[in-house]
Specification:
The chain is mostly helical. It has a single domain, classed as Orthogonal Bundle (Recoverin, domain 1). It has five helices and two strands, in the order ααβααβα. The longest helix has 21 residues. It is globular, with a radius of gyration of 13 Å.
Amino acid sequence: MKNSILFVAVLMCVFFLHAVAQARDLSLDQIPVMFSFLDANQDGYLEYKEVKRVDSTLTEKEFLSIDKDGDERVTLDEYIAHLKKGR
């Protein structure tokens, strides 16, 4: 049962990441949902290890380029700004 739930969660995340990487057309109301899904510990920040678990191609350098205040965590505002750059 646990493996099935994990499998479904990973599949959902892959579909979300595909949408972001390919289209970058998430509406503003969908972005917080994506952010919350990536925020595994639900502390309101994305850490490299959280994002890396669902996107194995992401480098730490790429992740840190999203982090504008240098605290090694990405806020929702930083995440939105990053997604908007790709539009």
